[in-house]
Specification:
CATH superfamily of the domain at 1-78 in chain A: NADH-ubiquinone/plastoquinone oxidoreductase chain 6, subunit NuoJ
Number of strands of chain B: 0
Protein name (chain A): NADH-quinone oxidoreductase subunit J
Pfam families (chain A): Oxidored_q3
Number of helices of chain B: 3
Number of strands of chain A: 0
Catalytic activity (chain A): a quinone + NADH + 5 H(+)(in) = a quinol + NAD(+) + 4 H(+)(out)
EC number (chain A): 7.1.1.-
Distance between the termini of chain B: 53 Å
Largest sheet of chain B: none
Shape of chain B: elongated
Main location (chain A): membrane
Largest sheet of chain A: none
CATH topology of the domain at 1-78 in chain A: Four Helix Bundle (Hemerythrin (Met), subunit A)
Radius of gyration of chain A: 21 Å
Oligomer: heterodimer
Strand content of chain A: under 5%
Strand content of chain B: under 5%
Number of helices of chain A: 7
Structural class of chain A: mainly alpha
Distance between the termini of chain A: 61 Å
Chain lengths: 172, 99
Protein backbone atom coordinates (compact mmCIF):
# COMPACT_ATOMS: atom_id res chain seq x y z
CA UNK A 1 0.00 0.00 0.00
CA UNK A 2 2.78 2.37 0.95
CA UNK A 3 4.70 1.51 -2.18
CA UNK A 4 1.63 2.00 -4.35
CA UNK A 5 1.10 5.44 -2.81
CA UNK A 6 4.74 6.39 -3.32
CA UNK A 7 4.67 5.16 -6.91
CA UNK A 8 1.54 7.13 -7.70
CA UNK A 9 2.92 10.30 -6.07
CA UNK A 10 6.28 10.14 -7.78
CA UNK A 11 4.72 9.34 -11.15
CA UNK A 12 2.24 12.21 -10.81
CA UNK A 13 4.97 14.64 -9.75
CA UNK A 14 7.26 13.69 -12.61
CA UNK A 15 4.50 13.77 -15.24
CA UNK A 16 3.14 17.11 -14.05
CA UNK A 17 6.64 18.63 -13.93
CA UNK A 18 7.31 17.40 -17.46
CA UNK A 19 3.98 18.77 -18.67
CA UNK A 20 4.79 22.11 -17.03
CA UNK A 21 8.20 22.29 -18.68
CA UNK A 22 6.91 21.23 -22.09
CA UNK A 23 3.65 23.18 -22.19
CA UNK A 24 3.27 26.04 -24.63
CA UNK A 25 0.82 28.04 -22.57
CA UNK A 26 2.24 29.75 -19.47
CA UNK A 27 -1.06 29.55 -17.59
CA UNK A 28 -1.22 25.80 -18.14
CA UNK A 29 2.40 25.49 -17.00
CA UNK A 30 1.59 27.30 -13.75
CA UNK A 31 -1.42 25.05 -13.16
CA UNK A 32 0.63 21.89 -13.80
CA UNK A 33 3.20 23.10 -11.29
CA UNK A 34 0.32 23.59 -8.86
CA UNK A 35 -0.64 19.93 -9.36
CA UNK A 36 2.98 18.96 -8.68
CA UNK A 37 3.09 21.01 -5.47
CA UNK A 38 -0.09 19.44 -4.11
CA UNK A 39 1.27 15.96 -4.77
CA UNK A 40 4.48 16.97 -3.06
CA UNK A 41 2.50 18.04 0.01
CA UNK A 42 1.10 14.50 0.18
CA UNK A 43 4.65 13.17 -0.25
CA UNK A 44 5.66 15.21 2.81
CA UNK A 45 2.79 13.57 4.67
CA UNK A 46 4.22 10.16 3.85
CA UNK A 47 7.48 11.35 5.41
CA UNK A 48 5.70 12.24 8.69
CA UNK A 49 6.26 15.95 8.06
CA UNK A 50 2.76 17.35 8.37
CA UNK A 51 3.88 20.90 9.15
CA UNK A 52 5.95 20.94 5.97
CA UNK A 53 2.92 19.72 4.03
CA UNK A 54 0.85 22.58 5.43
CA UNK A 55 3.59 25.11 4.61
CA UNK A 56 3.88 23.65 1.13
CA UNK A 57 0.18 24.13 0.45
CA UNK A 58 -0.05 27.57 2.07
CA UNK A 59 3.15 29.17 0.79
CA UNK A 60 3.67 27.50 -2.58
CA UNK A 61 0.14 26.79 -3.74
CA UNK A 62 -1.34 29.77 -1.96
CA UNK A 63 1.21 32.54 -2.35
CA UNK A 64 3.94 31.85 -4.90
CA UNK A 65 1.76 30.40 -7.63
CA UNK A 66 -0.82 33.15 -7.21
CA UNK A 67 2.04 35.60 -7.79
CA UNK A 68 3.02 33.68 -10.92
CA UNK A 69 -0.56 33.68 -12.19
CA UNK A 70 -0.85 37.40 -11.48
CA UNK A 71 2.23 38.16 -13.55
CA UNK A 72 1.16 35.80 -16.36
CA UNK A 73 -2.18 37.54 -16.61
CA UNK A 74 -0.58 40.98 -16.40
CA UNK A 75 1.70 40.24 -19.35
CA UNK A 76 0.26 39.79 -22.79
CA UNK A 77 1.52 36.45 -24.07
CA UNK A 78 -0.66 36.07 -27.12
CA UNK A 79 2.23 35.59 -29.53
CA UNK A 80 3.60 32.76 -27.39
CA UNK A 81 1.52 30.15 -29.20
CA UNK A 82 3.09 30.90 -32.55
CA UNK A 83 6.72 30.90 -31.47
CA UNK A 84 8.86 27.77 -31.00
CA UNK A 85 8.95 26.61 -27.40
CA UNK A 86 12.64 25.92 -26.99
CA UNK A 87 15.81 27.80 -27.67
CA UNK A 88 17.73 26.67 -30.72
CA UNK A 89 20.36 24.96 -28.61
CA UNK A 90 18.04 22.61 -26.76
CA UNK A 91 19.63 19.33 -27.93
CA UNK A 92 22.81 20.57 -26.25
CA UNK A 93 20.83 21.29 -23.08
CA UNK A 94 19.35 17.80 -23.25
CA UNK A 95 22.83 16.32 -23.53
CA UNK A 96 24.04 18.36 -20.55
CA UNK A 97 21.10 17.28 -18.40
CA UNK A 98 21.61 13.67 -19.48
CA UNK A 99 25.25 13.90 -18.44
CA UNK A 100 24.21 15.28 -15.06
CA UNK A 101 21.73 12.42 -14.66
CA UNK A 102 24.36 9.80 -15.46
CA UNK A 103 26.92 11.28 -13.07
CA UNK A 104 24.44 11.78 -10.21
CA UNK A 105 22.98 8.29 -10.72
CA UNK A 106 26.48 6.85 -10.51
CA UNK A 107 26.97 8.72 -7.26
CA UNK A 108 23.56 7.77 -5.89
CA UNK A 109 23.72 4.06 -6.69
CA UNK A 110 26.45 3.56 -4.09
CA UNK A 111 24.73 5.62 -1.43
CA UNK A 112 24.30 4.35 2.13
CA UNK A 113 22.68 6.35 4.90
CA UNK A 114 24.52 7.01 8.12
CA UNK A 115 23.36 6.08 11.59
CA UNK A 116 20.12 7.76 12.66
CA UNK A 117 20.40 10.51 15.26
CA UNK A 118 17.13 9.79 17.04
CA UNK A 119 15.60 13.22 17.72
CA UNK A 120 12.67 12.91 15.35
CA UNK A 121 11.55 9.44 16.38
CA UNK A 122 7.98 8.27 15.72
CA UNK A 123 7.31 8.24 19.49
CA UNK A 124 8.32 11.88 19.83
CA UNK A 125 6.24 12.74 16.77
CA UNK A 126 3.21 11.04 18.28
CA UNK A 127 3.74 12.66 21.65
CA UNK A 128 4.52 16.25 20.69
CA UNK A 129 3.59 16.60 17.02
CA UNK A 130 5.74 17.69 14.13
CA UNK A 131 5.06 21.41 14.38
CA UNK A 132 6.11 21.58 18.02
CA UNK A 133 9.33 19.65 17.49
CA UNK A 134 10.21 21.78 14.47
CA UNK A 135 9.38 25.02 16.27
CA UNK A 136 11.39 24.16 19.35
CA UNK A 137 14.52 23.37 17.35
CA UNK A 138 13.95 26.32 15.02
CA UNK A 139 13.67 28.89 17.79
CA UNK A 140 16.38 27.42 20.01
CA UNK A 141 19.15 26.45 17.65
CA UNK A 142 18.43 28.27 14.40
CA UNK A 143 17.10 31.58 15.65
CA UNK A 144 19.66 33.72 13.81
CA UNK A 145 18.97 31.94 10.52
CA UNK A 146 15.25 32.46 11.09
CA UNK A 147 15.76 36.21 11.59
CA UNK A 148 17.97 36.38 8.51
CA UNK A 149 15.26 34.64 6.48
CA UNK A 150 12.75 37.21 7.70
CA UNK A 151 15.03 40.08 6.70
CA UNK A 152 15.58 38.39 3.33
CA UNK A 153 11.83 38.25 2.69
CA UNK A 154 11.44 41.90 3.71
CA UNK A 155 14.26 42.96 1.38
CA UNK A 156 12.74 40.90 -1.44
CA UNK A 157 9.34 42.54 -1.07
CA UNK A 158 10.84 46.04 -0.86
CA UNK A 159 13.09 45.28 -3.81
CA UNK A 160 10.12 44.16 -5.91
CA UNK A 161 8.25 47.37 -5.07
CA UNK A 162 11.27 49.57 -5.83
CA UNK A 163 12.06 47.79 -9.11
CA UNK A 164 8.57 48.05 -10.52
CA UNK A 165 8.03 51.63 -9.36
CA UNK A 166 11.24 53.01 -10.82
CA UNK A 167 10.53 51.83 -14.36
CA UNK A 168 7.05 53.30 -14.20
CA UNK A 169 8.47 56.72 -13.39
CA UNK A 170 11.06 56.33 -16.16
CA UNK A 171 8.48 55.29 -18.73
CA UNK A 172 6.13 58.19 -18.06
CA UNK B 1 10.17 2.97 2.28
CA UNK B 2 13.92 3.12 1.60
CA UNK B 3 15.33 6.61 1.41
CA UNK B 4 17.03 5.88 -1.90
CA UNK B 5 13.69 5.95 -3.71
CA UNK B 6 13.02 9.46 -2.51
CA UNK B 7 16.51 10.48 -3.61
CA UNK B 8 15.96 9.02 -7.08
CA UNK B 9 12.69 10.92 -7.32
CA UNK B 10 14.46 14.12 -6.28
CA UNK B 11 17.16 13.54 -8.89
CA UNK B 12 14.61 13.03 -11.66
CA UNK B 13 12.67 16.14 -10.67
CA UNK B 14 15.86 18.17 -10.55
CA UNK B 15 16.81 17.00 -14.03
CA UNK B 16 13.38 18.00 -15.37
CA UNK B 17 13.71 21.45 -13.81
CA UNK B 18 17.24 21.92 -15.07
CA UNK B 19 16.23 20.97 -18.60
CA UNK B 20 13.38 23.46 -18.45
CA UNK B 21 15.60 26.22 -17.17
CA UNK B 22 18.30 25.72 -19.77
CA UNK B 23 16.14 25.18 -22.83
CA UNK B 24 12.91 27.19 -22.55
CA UNK B 25 12.50 30.64 -24.10
CA UNK B 26 9.79 31.97 -21.81
CA UNK B 27 11.13 33.66 -18.67
CA UNK B 28 8.08 32.74 -16.58
CA UNK B 29 8.48 29.06 -17.34
CA UNK B 30 12.19 29.38 -16.58
CA UNK B 31 11.29 30.71 -13.12
CA UNK B 32 8.82 27.84 -12.69
CA UNK B 33 11.66 25.46 -13.54
CA UNK B 34 13.72 27.01 -10.73
CA UNK B 35 10.79 26.30 -8.41
CA UNK B 36 10.74 22.69 -9.61
CA UNK B 37 14.47 22.35 -8.86
CA UNK B 38 14.04 23.83 -5.37
CA UNK B 39 11.20 21.39 -4.71
CA UNK B 40 13.40 18.49 -5.78
CA UNK B 41 15.93 19.64 -3.20
CA UNK B 42 13.10 19.84 -0.66
CA UNK B 43 12.11 16.23 -1.33
CA UNK B 44 15.68 15.08 -0.76
CA UNK B 45 16.06 17.17 2.43
CA UNK B 46 12.78 16.01 3.94
CA UNK B 47 13.47 12.36 3.11
CA UNK B 48 16.95 12.49 4.61
CA UNK B 49 15.66 14.35 7.67
CA UNK B 50 13.02 11.70 8.31
CA UNK B 51 15.43 8.84 7.65
CA UNK B 52 18.16 10.29 9.91
CA UNK B 53 15.54 11.17 12.55
CA UNK B 54 17.04 14.63 12.64
CA UNK B 55 14.97 17.80 12.65
CA UNK B 56 17.59 19.88 10.81
CA UNK B 57 16.62 18.55 7.40
CA UNK B 58 13.04 19.67 7.89
CA UNK B 59 14.19 23.09 9.13
CA UNK B 60 16.30 23.42 5.97
CA UNK B 61 13.17 22.73 3.92
CA UNK B 62 11.53 25.61 5.76
CA UNK B 63 14.37 27.96 4.82
CA UNK B 64 14.42 26.76 1.22
CA UNK B 65 10.72 27.62 0.98
CA UNK B 66 11.43 31.12 2.35
CA UNK B 67 14.25 31.67 -0.15
CA UNK B 68 12.03 30.39 -2.97
CA UNK B 69 9.34 32.91 -2.04
CA UNK B 70 11.88 35.76 -2.07
CA UNK B 71 13.27 34.55 -5.40
CA UNK B 72 9.79 34.42 -6.91
CA UNK B 73 9.05 38.00 -5.81
CA UNK B 74 12.30 39.40 -7.21
CA UNK B 75 12.25 37.27 -10.36
CA UNK B 76 8.67 38.13 -11.24
CA UNK B 77 9.26 41.83 -10.68
CA UNK B 78 12.24 41.54 -13.04
CA UNK B 79 9.94 39.86 -15.57
CA UNK B 80 7.51 42.78 -15.29
CA UNK B 81 10.43 45.17 -15.73
CA UNK B 82 11.64 43.26 -18.80
CA UNK B 83 8.18 43.30 -20.32
CA UNK B 84 7.75 47.03 -19.77
CA UNK B 85 11.15 47.72 -21.29
CA UNK B 86 11.15 45.38 -24.31
CA UNK B 87 7.49 44.23 -24.65
CA UNK B 88 8.95 40.74 -24.65
CA UNK B 89 9.44 37.87 -22.21
CA UNK B 90 11.53 35.59 -24.42
CA UNK B 91 15.10 35.26 -23.39
CA UNK B 92 16.64 34.94 -26.84
CA UNK B 93 15.10 38.25 -27.89
CA UNK B 94 16.70 40.14 -25.02
CA UNK B 95 20.22 40.62 -26.25
CA UNK B 96 20.93 44.07 -24.89
CA UNK B 97 22.21 43.96 -21.34
CA UNK B 98 22.91 47.67 -20.96
CA UNK B 99 20.23 50.12 -19.81
Amino acid sequence: MEKVLFGYLSLAMLVSALLAVFSRNAVKAVLWVLVMFLHQAVLFLTLQAEFLAAVQVIVYAGAVLVLFLFVVYMINLREELRLPRFLGSYPLAFLAVFGLLVLAAAGLSGYHTAQALGILTPEALLKYGHARLLGEHLFREHLLAFEVAGVLLLVAVLGAVVLVRRIREGAV
Amino acid sequence: MPVNWYLWLALALFAVGLFGFVSRRNVIIMLLSIEIMLNAANVALAALGTRMQDVTGHILVFFVIAVAAAEAAIGLSLVVLLYKRFREVHMDEVRRLKG
